[in-house]
Amino acid sequence: MKRKGYMTIGAKWLVLTAGSVLMLLPYIWMVFSSSKTNTEMMRLPLQFFPDRWTLDNYRTVLSRMNFGRYYLNTVFVTFTTVLLQLFFNSLAAFVFAKMRFPGKDKLFGLLLTLLMIPPQMTLIANYKTVDALGWLDSYKALIIPGIISVYGIFFLRQFFLTIPDEMLESARIDGAGYFRIYAEIMLPLCSNAMVAYGIFALLGQWNELMWPMTMTSSDRVRVLSLALSSMQGQVATENNLIMAGAVMATLPMIVVFIVGQRSLMEGIALGGLKA
Nearest-CA neighbor of 226 among 146, 142, 145, 149? Predict the structure, then answer.
């Protein structure tokens, strides 16, 4: 019986290991290819390892394109948007989870229906709005329209619902206002949820392509996703340079996930405790 249990555990580990390797293989291939020459990329059969490890492709990408500017733009836009999202979405989630007012459930249900509308359907209307405000080709166009997320409100509301109302009532008796309750009780208790949503938001904002492509036209405010997209046209025959650019673009998000993975897993696990 014990032997059968060990075999089952071993089989599970084998399956998980194989799945992990399959998921990591494309990224490993991308990293190895970023050190290859274009000739090595074209060889048949495919060559997995480069003949010589070098950073020449990275230097070429940085010198040929305004990659540093794109990088700084992406960091600024992404982190500013996510920080504002965390504040406004958590504040709205607190209101829907813990405050009582007429029509709250109907308003929240109406809000959730926005999740069913593809962003492509509202792109033209949003573009005209941004244009009318004079925000085109500016940081405002990239940041302000994205600071409210219906999914973020819904996600964080689920965590706020897990906190007993008695804690809030005790704080109210002691004279705490709603904003103080939100800042000093709700946020500390839901820190894992905030980190989990922050990582999701970071990934989404960092990889966003359609919105920056529509709203920007100059290198002054363009972001990494546009840089990689334009690289496919400028260096279409130099796949090694595209791989080097892709590695530089994805590395920060890998670091963010590694640093925050514990809070991410705990946040996701706690999110399903109360609907």
Answer: 142
